[in-house]
Predict the 3D structure of the following.
Amino acid sequence: MRKTKNKHIDKITLAIIQKRLEAITEEMALVLRLTSFSPNIKERADFSTAIFTSTGELIAQAKAIPVHLGSMQDSVLSALQEYKGKLQPKDAVFHNSPFRGGTHLPDITSITPVFLPEHDTPSFYVANRAHHSDVGGKTPGSMPGISKEQFEEGIIIPPIKLIEQGKEQRELMQLILENVRTPKERYGDFMAQYGANTRGEKGLKDLVEKYGEQTILQAQQELLEIAQNAMEQRIQTLKNGTYKFTDYLDNDGITDHPVPITVTLTIKDSKMILDFTGTSPQSQGNANAPFSVTKSAVYYVALTIFEYAKELPINQGAFKPIMITAPKGSLVNPNPPAAVSSGNTEVSQRIVDVVFGAFSQATKVPAASQGTMNNILIGGFYTSQRKQAFTYYETLAGGAGAFHKYHGEHAIHTHMTNTLNTPIEVLETTYPIQVIKYQIRKNSGGQGNYQGGNGLLREYKFLVPVTISLQTERRITRPYGLYGGKPGKTGENILLHTNNQKEKLPGRITITAKPGETLIIKTPGGGGYGRKDNAQ
Amino acid sequence: MLVDTRQLIGIDVGGTFSDFIILDESGEEPIKVFKVPSTPQNPVDAIIQGLLNASTQEQVRLHKAKYLAHGTTVGTNAVIQRKGAKTALITTKGFEDVLEIGRQNRQDLYSLRPKRAVPILQKKDRYGITERVNANGKIQTPLDYKELQSLVHELVARKYESIAVSLLFSFKNPKHEKEIKEELEKKGLLVSVSSEVHPVIREYERTNTTVLDAFVKPLISRYMMELEERVLSLGFHGSIGIMQSNGGMVSVKQSSRKPVSLLLSGLAGGVLAGAFTGKLLGETKLLTIDIGGTSTDVSLVKDDVQIVKEAVLGELPVMTETVDVLTIGAGGGSIARVKEGMFIVGPDSAGADPGPLCYGKGGTQVTVTDADVVTKRLSARNFAGGTMKIYPYLALQGIKALGEELGLSPEETAQGIQEVYRNNIVLALRKISLERGHDPREFTLVPFGGQGPVHGIELAELLGAKKVYIPPFPGVWSAFGLIASPYRQDLTKTIQVNLDEINNSDLVSWFSTLERKGMQKIKEDGFTEKQVTIEWKLDMKYKGQGYELNIPIHARKASDKKVPNMKKKEIQAKFEKTHHQKYGFTFPTTPVQIINVHVTIIGNRPAPVLSKPKTRQDKGIPSPLETRKVFMKNQWQEFKVYEKQELRLHDCIQGPAIIEQADTTVIIPQEWNVTLHETGHFIAIQTKERKA
C-alpha cells in the first residue's frame, strides 16, 4: 500500500475495497434468488443481503428492498445479544421476531458469523432477510386482513441456531416446518438463505486474505465516516427549523376511525431529529409498525430526498446524523404482543408520506405516491380432497406522485417496496386462479401542472373455494397533491358475485369466496404537483 | 502484387468506426486490416466505402472473394433510440398494458422521480382482442372473428408497417395466434407472433421480445436487402453471413425472418474471436476482455462460448439465445473524480469527443487514457499508431489537480486511477466466472480492443490468472471473430415435466423433432450433413425453483445417424453435479424437472488460417527501439520498448517491456515474459509465482 500524508488508508485502496464489499453482497443475492423456492424470493426478489461489522454495524448492502434497510441491523444485533460468545463457524441464526428487530413474521433473517483464521471471535457477520410465502398463523400467507395479536400471524422464531456448524438442527427444523402450510418450500428457502451466507463468508475471507485484516477494518471505519460526513453535509443545506405534518391511515381494521401518524422534524445544523409524538397509540389490529420499520422508512426518505444513494456507499454511517424517537406503545413503536403484519407494508408507506410532508416545508419534495402496497393473499386447496394447500401473495403497484418536471409514472412500485409482479402465466399455472384483467387504471392520478401517475386494475377469478386476506390502504384517505396539485384517487376493493352483484370490500378484511367469484382491485393514483393552470 | 486466391472479409460496424479484416483462405498472404469512419445514417455506405478502399488500395479482388461476414448494430440502435417501424401489438383483451407495466418495478430505488424503461409501444398502438387460452392450453373463449376483421381493417387504415401478436398461453396453444397471423398476412402485413418468436412462459418477457422483433423487422429486411444488392454490384459473388446474438452466423435471407435474434450481434464477434484464439492455442478455459473507449465487454469461454437465454437491451428484456457477455462502463475514456471523499472511476466517459484531456479537444475531466499517458505507458509518438497528436502536459495538469484532492503525487494519482479501473474490470471478470461456478484463476485472459493489451497482463495478475494471450490484431479482433464463427441455429421447446414422469423415448422424440427443423434451416444456408454438428441440451431445475440450469446431454456429427442411448439416471446425475458446482449444494429428495428441450445445430466452416510471423534469420535477439521510464508499482521503472514489426517467430521479450504496434500497445510488467507464437499471438506467461 502506498504511503499517504496521514494515518488513513489511501483513497484508491478504499475505493477498491468498497466495490468489493458491494460485490460480495450481490453474489449473496444471486445465490439466494437462484436457489430459493418461495415465489416471493425467486420471482419477486423480496429479500436483501448485507455485511455487518463485528459490532453489528451495516457496512454494505445489495441494493434491494428499502424496508429492509437499517431494520436488518436490529435483527443482527438481537441475534448477537442472544448468542454472545456462543457463535461458531458455519452457524446460522434465524429469526423473525418483530420486537427484536424484525419487521413482520414472514420476513426471516439469517445471520452467519465470519471467523477469520486464528480468531476465536467473529470479525464480521453476513446476513440476509427473505420474505417466505407462509409461516403459519390463522390465514395462508401469514398476513391476515384482521389480527389482534402477533400469535395469529404465524410462528414466532426467536433468534435460534437453526444451523450449527454447518449441520441443521433437525428437531428445531421440524418444529418450524410443522407450523407452516408449505413445509417443503420453507425448508428449501432456509437452505438457500444459508447458501447465500456461505457465499458471503467466502467472499469476505478472500478479501481479508488479499488486503490484510487491518486494512479491511480501517477501510470499514473510513467508509462509515465518509457516509456520515456526506449525510451531515446534505442536512446542512436545509434551513434550521421545526416542521410538523400529520397524515392518516384509513383505519386499523377493527374500528372505522382514521388513524393519525404525526411527525415533528427538526433540522439543526448537521443533524435531523424526527419525533413521532402525537401519533396514535398502537392499534388493536395489525396496522402497527415495529420501531425498526419506522426507522427504515425514515432512512429511506433521507437517502432519497438528498439523492444520496447515487454514488455514495450506503452504510450505518449515513444514518448516524438521524435521530428518531417514538413513544413506546404507539403505532410506530408498539409493545408486544401487538399484531404487526401490515406495519412493514402499509404503515411504512404512510410514514414515508408523513416524513416527506414534513420535508415539504423545508425543501421541494414530490406529491404522495399510492401510499400502500395493496397486499393480496389468497389461499385454499387445489382439489376438493383438501390434500395440497396453496398460498398466493402479491403486492400491487400504483401511481407515483408527481414532482417538478416529472409526471408520475403509472402502475409502478414506489417508496418502501420494489418487488416484481408474479407473471400472470406463472400465477395461473401455479394456482387455481385466473386473471381476467391487468391494466393501467385510467384517470386515477391527481391533476396538476405535473400529473400524478395512474394506478392499476387487476381482476382475479377463483376456480376453487378460497380465503382472501386484504391489507390495503388509501381506500378512504387520498394520496396528497402538493403546491396546488390535486390528490390521487383512492383505491377500491370489490368482490363480484356470480350473480354479477358487486360487493364493496373494506381496505382490511379476510373473507371467503366461491368458485366463479371475482376479486377486483383498483390501486390508488399518485398526487399531482403544482396548480394545473399554472403553466411554467 | 495482385492476389489471386480466395479471400475472407470480416466487417464489424461500430458506432465510430467500421473495422475491416481481410485474409486469404490459405493463410499465405499478409492479413489486411483497416478502419473507415462509420456512417450511422446508413451503415451500408461505410461498408461499401471500405470494400472500395480494399479493392483500390489493398489489391483485393472482390469478385474472387469467397465469404463476407458481418456484425451489425442496426437493430440494436433502433431499439436503444426507440426508432423502429410503426408497429402495433395485438394481445388478449384486458392485457393491453402488460407491455407498459412490465414487472411493475422501478429502476432506481432511491429516486424522487421513479421511472421504468420507456416501453417500445404506447397505449394507442396496443390492441386487445376477445379470446382466451387457459393455463392447460385449452381454448376457453374462442377467437372473435368479427372483432378480428374490424381490427385488421383498422390496422391497415392506420398504416402500420409491422404487427406483433402475443396472446396469453400461446406457448401452450398457438391456434389463435396462427389464425390472427393468417388474417394479417392476407392483407400483406409483416407479422411477428410470440408462439414462433419465443414460445416460453412469462407474458411480459415474451410480449416484449415479440414486439422488438416486429419493431426492427422492416428495418432489418431493408438493410439486408440493400447490403446484399450493393455488395453484389461491386462484383462480389461469394456468400454473406450475418452474426446473430447467439454467436453463430446465418444467411442474409434467414436473418430477416427472426431479426430479434440479431439484436446483440455487435457483442458476439469479440467473444467468438476470443474463443477462436483459444482453439488456435489449444486452451479450453478463457476470459475474453474487449476494452474500448467507453465500455468493456467480458465473457467466459469454457470449451465453447457460453450462451444465456436472456439479454437486456435499452433496459428491456430480450429473450433470445445470446452470448454471455457482461458489459461495464470502463474504458480509456472513463472519467476519474473525487466525490465527497470517495474516489470514483467511470462509468461516465468522456467518449471520443471531447475525449481525454490529452486529446486537446476541450475535455475538462481526467480519464484513464490520461493516466496511461502520464505514467508513460502510452507514448505521444505512437499514439493511435502515430496517426494522432496528443498533448501530454494537459493530462499531467489535470491529474496533478486531482492528486491534490487525494493527497497523492501526480504519478501516484495516475497509478491509482489505473488500479481502480482495473479493479472494476476484475470485478466483472470475477462476476462472470464465480456466478457461473468457475474459478477465474484457472482461466487464460484474452484482452483485445485498442485498450486491452495496455492493462491485460496486470488484469491477469490481479485476478490470479497465470497466462494471457494477446491476439495479432487486437484493434480489429472482433471483425476477425465474424470470419471465424460457425453458422448456428438454436431451437427450443417448453415441456415442463418431472423427469420421473417421462420415458426415454419421449425425450428422443422431442429432440429429434427440433433437430429435423434445425437441419432443414442449416441446409438452406448451404451446409451438408458432414459439416454439421448437433447438440442436445435440457433446461432443468428442482421442482419449485424459479430458474433453470442448462445441461448438455449429447453431441454428435449430423452424418452420424445413431440415436443416442438416454438414461434418466445419468441425466439426473448430470443436473445434480452442475447444481452442486454452481451453488454448492443439492436437494436430494426434491423431484427434478425438465422445462425446455433445446437443440443447437452448428454449421462448421473451415477455420481461417493466420499467416505465420517471419522467422529470424540473424539468430540474434530483438533489439529495443528505446528505453522509457514508466511509472508502475509505485516507482519509475526502465521499460525496453520494441516495435512489433521488428519481432520474429518465437522471440521472447522479458518484462518490464513495451511492445508498440499500429493498433495497440502491449505493457509487460516485471516477472512476465511474452513470446511471439506462430499464430501471430503473443503468449504472456508469469515467470515467478506471486501472491495474488
About this structure: The mean pLDDT of chain B is 91. Chain B touches chain A through 64 residues (CB under 8 Å). The radius of gyration of chain B is 27 Å. The first strand of chain B starts at residue 7 and ends at 13.
